[in-house]
Amino acid sequence: MEMTASFKHLVPLAIVAVFSYVVAELCHSKPIYDSLLQKALAKDKANAQAMEKNCTRNVIELSVESGSFIEGKMIKNIPWPEHTLLVDVKRGENDIVPSGDTKIIASDYLYVLTDTENCQRVRELVEK
Amino acid sequence: MLDKQKIETYNNLNHWQNFRLRLVGEGILVGVFSGCVVGFFRFALNYADVFRAQIYTFLSSISLIYVSGLVALFLCIAFVLSRLVAYEPLSAGSGIPQVKGNILGLYKTVWWRIILSKLLGGILGIGAGLSLGREGPAIQLGAMTGQGFSRFLGRTRMEERYLISSGAGAGLAAAFNAPLAGVIFTLEELHKNFSVVVLLPSLAAALTATIISRIFFGQDTIFLFPDLSRFPVQYFPYLAVLGICLGLFGTFFNYCLLKSTDFYKLSIFKNNFMRISFPLLLAIPLGFYLPQVLGGGNQLVDALVAMDFSLQVLLVLVGCKFIFTMFSYGCGVPGGFFLPMLVIGALTGNILGSVLVDVGLLAPYYRIHVIIFAMRVSFLPLSEHLLQALS
After folding, report:
1. Which of A86, A99, B56, B313 has a CA-to-CA distance to B144 between 20 and 30 Å?
2. Which of residues 88-147 of B touch A (CB under 8 A)?
3. Are B290 and B316 in contact (CB under 8 A)?
4. B123-137 tens-digit pLDDT
5. Chain B residues with beta carbon closer than 8 angstroms to that of A16
6. Rounded to the nearest 5 degrees, what angle is found at the Cα of B383, between the Cα atoms of B381 and B388?
């Protein structure tokens, strides 16, 4: 709408959008930028291995969606990859200093200190 | 170094309120810088569009021999492009996957090298007429400006990711004069969640970048559509047909785009220079006979609305634009495929609209509506950006 400067067409536009989305899902179409990123990563695997040698540390933000593998689990019962440290849990406006007995619930934001190598594994753990 | 990073990160997490407010201020500054970089990029592309049209008009008025000069020029461009991509491999292609990888912490990037290579490569490639879009480059340019800003101030890696994403949204906002699109892109594609820490600086950056772009280019929206009346309810069933067509077409486009690089693995292409030369040389005959399919192609959408093309012309245009976009993207020069996809979507919508008008199911006035809907939704099956399509 912004690009065409008119908000009159929201309803018809949304109808077209939903139909095209469902059809694409039925055809098992994957989001293109994810596919391209994976392709690029697979291509320079050699590059990635070189990167792992001088891997840097990062604090990454992860959101826990309902139905996540770690939802409802205590932090000590979650199989974290090596070299990961959960430093902070934000629940709404509150900060929780995580301990082993803290239970993760959906809509929490986790702040995890990890290195480049394990970044993807943590993400998969939280998002699966 | 590492300990300093850790301590600062802890500090940021402890003073969350202050941290969020600081990010808004930094977002504004990132917006200013991204707006300027992307504004320059846009300016150069607009100029290149005009210049290209003049060259082809001039060449068709004189002897055909002089076309060899253009061939030589394009081979030089192909050479420069192949060197640029070799210099900074992360500047190849759209740029959005790279920014995503960056935010996920998968890539280490040197921001100024990417800006340099993307800016020059994007202007040369798209300027020469390859069917590529400016949005991917604009997003990556904005993101790398954000990273440069963060490095300049010595911010932590955690903060840097927020600044990179703000810059990315600002880049998109400046490229299309559309702040909401920029913010939604950051949330929907880059972060896939709706955290306030992402939203606040992104909004600040996107708004600033839009203001900068409006100072340079005026208030006009990127597509010039007339003010239309509402789409009548009795025509709503056609929307389902349009949605299904676009979904199938988008899936096909998605498949072809991922396979487009395979074409360049054929053994006749010995190196990157030859790969890049192929679509550039293909652009020359197209420039003489079908200049509408060259470049991003937003003027073509405006033309579709203003004129009623015949069905044959539309089919030729959509076919050529599709194939040429695949060749252009597959060779791996800097440039995205969002704008070409919008144009292909608009053409598809026009074809469907014209068919409906011809068989008497649709009043001719509403052909333009169908074009707009098709264009706006065309990218959705590819990217799954539901909100983006509606913004």
Report:
1. A86
2. 89, 93-94, 96-98, 100-101, 104-106, 108
3. yes
4. 999 999 999 998 999
5. 239, 242-243, 246, 373-374, 376-377
6. 95
Count of domains for chain B: 2
Partner B contacted by A49 (CB < 8 A): no
Q: Domain check: are B210 and B329 in the same one? A: no
Say whether B258 and A90 touch across the interface (CB within 8 A): no
Cβ pair A59:B382 closer than 8 A: no
* Whether B88 and B119 share a structural domain: yes
Query: Are both B179 and B277 inside the same structural domain?
Result: no
**pLDDT by residue (tens digit) across B83-93?**
999 999 999 88
**ipTM metric:** 0.84
One domain, residues B239 and B156: no
- Do B101 and B199 lie in one domain? The reply is yes
Kindly report, residue by residue over B103-113, the tens digit of the pLDDT: 888 888 899 99
**% helix, strand, coil for chain B, step of 5:** 80, 0, 20
Looking up residue B155, the CATH number of its domain turns out to be 1.10.3080.10
Tell me the whole-structure pTM to 2 decimals. Answer: 0.84
Contact B332, B261 (CB under 8 A): yes
Token representation of residue A16: 């077209």
- What confidence score (pLDDT) does residue B279 get? 94
For B260-291, give one letter per residue: b (16+ CB within 10 A) or e: bbeebeeeebeebbebbbbbbebbbebbeeeb
Q: How many beta carbons lie within 10 A of that of residue B117, not counting itself?
A: 22
- Average pLDDT (A60-78) is 84
Q: Are B201 and B247 found together in one domain?
A: no
Domains and CATH numbers, chain A: 10-127 (3.30.70.1450)
Nearest chain B residue to A16 by CA distance is B243
- Residue B12 pLDDT > 70, yes or no? yes
Higher-scoring residue by pLDDT: B33, A104: B33
The 10s digit of each residue's pLDDT in B332-367 is: 899 999 999 999 999 999 999 999 999 989 998 999
- Domain enclosing residue B332, as ranges: 233-390
